């Protein structure tokens, strides 16, 4: 396996918009810390639109209206029986995100 020089690593970081604080692979340092920094970099590059809740309604065979609310942060979908429950859920979602 070919070893990357420091100059090559610095150019790569610049082109890929990697934080200057990230160490070159195979260099001394905590591997878990580098993985964590990489994950944070991906998280902060993500579009804020990816973190907006999604809400939709559906009718069942009996004609009852059901509301569904998707939380993109934890990947869970809630099934709610009224628009009021949806509004409460949205308030809680936005309150949690602002912490």
H and E string: HHEEEH
Number of strands: 3
The parts where pLDDT drops under 50 for at least 5 residues are: none
Calculate the terminal CA-CA distance, rounded to whole Å. Answer: 45 Å
> Average pLDDT across residues?
78
How many structural units, i.e. domains? 2
Number of helices: 3
Structural class: alpha+beta
Description:
It is a single chain. The protein has 99 residues and is of the alpha+beta class. The chain folds into two domains: 6-45, no CATH class; 49-97, no CATH class. It contains three helices and three strands. It has helices spanning 6-15, 31-45, 83-97; strands at residues 54-59, 65-71, 76-80. A three-stranded antiparallel beta sheet has the order 1-2-3, with helices on one face. The longest helix is centred in the middle third of the chain and has 15 residues, at 31-45. It starts with 5 loop residues before the first helix and ends with a helix. The model has no long low-confidence stretch (mean pLDDT 78).
Fold topology:
Blueprint: H1 6-15, H2 31-45, E1 54-59, E2 65-71, E3 76-80, H3 83-97
Antiparallel strand pairs: 1-2, 2-3
Short description:
With 99 residues, the chain is α+β, with helices and mostly antiparallel strands. It has helices spanning 6-15, 31-45, 83-97; strands at 54-59, 65-71, 76-80. It has 2 domains: 6-45, no CATH class; 49-97, no CATH class.
């Amino acid at each position: 396996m070919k070893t990357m020089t420091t100059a090559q690593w610095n150019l790569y970081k610049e082109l890929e918009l990697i934080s200057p604080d990230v160490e070159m692979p195979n260099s001394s340092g905590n591997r878990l810390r580098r993985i964590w920094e990489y994950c944070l970099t991906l998280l902060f590059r993500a579009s804020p639109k990816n973190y907006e809740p999604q809400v939709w309604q559906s009718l069942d065979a009996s004609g009852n209206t059901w509301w569904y609310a998707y939380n993109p942060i934890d990947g869970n979908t809630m099934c709610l029986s009224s628009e009021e429950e949806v509004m409460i859920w949205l308030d809680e979602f936005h309150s949690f995100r602002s912490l």
